[in-house]
Write a structure and sequence with these properties.
Helix content is about 5%, strand content about 45%. Bound molecules: 2-acetamido-2-deoxy-beta-D-glucopyranose. Keywords: Signal.
Length: about 140
């Protein structure tokens, strides 16, 4: 398993996130979804209902800027996801997103962003997408 506790910002391609829970699996925050900088919190990704088998699962944050645009992604962790695995529970430490990116970004989402092979082509057709749950940055 690769694990990077990064606070870097990923300029990823756009993806349809919110309504794709069934296709991309489900993500939840264990306990309170209000988290402060430096706090460790536990998240669970569950691929049981996902249409495809994830190859990787990244946990990201994304908020909404004052002009209504979505912010860049904040990468919390990146993981390989074995084919025989269904659930990934992971402890994450919240970076100081408000200090680094600004306190005017609101409506934060915790996203589980997956990559997967579309059917069984050679070379593989690698797709990506995500599902999300609201998170409050205290
Ligand atoms: C994963 O999701 C399935 C249903 O999609 C559920 O039955 C199972 O209990 C979940 N597992 C965990 C650990 O939450």
């Amino acid at each position: 398993m690769r694990f990077f506790a990064l606070t870097s910002v990923l300029a990823a391609a756009t993806c349809a996130l919110a309504q794709e829970a069934a296709r991309y699996g489900a993500v939840s925050i264990d306990g309170s979804n209000t988290v402060s900088a430096g706090q460790t919190f536990s998240v669970t990704y569950n691929s049981t209902a996902a249409r495809y088998t994830p190859k990787t699962v990244d946990f990201l944050l994304q908020g909404t800027m004052p002009n209504g645009d979505r912010s860049a992604y904040v990468v919390l962790a990146r993981n390989d996801f074995p084919a025989d695995q269904d659930v990934l529970q992971q402890d994450l430490t919240m970076p100081d997103v408000t200090a680094s990116l600004g306190s005017d970004i609101t409506n934060w989402l915790l996203i589980s962003y997956i990559t997967y092979n579309y059917d069984d082509y050679t070379p593989p057709v690698v797709m990506s997408g995500g599902t999300s749950t609201p998170i409050n940055l205290a």
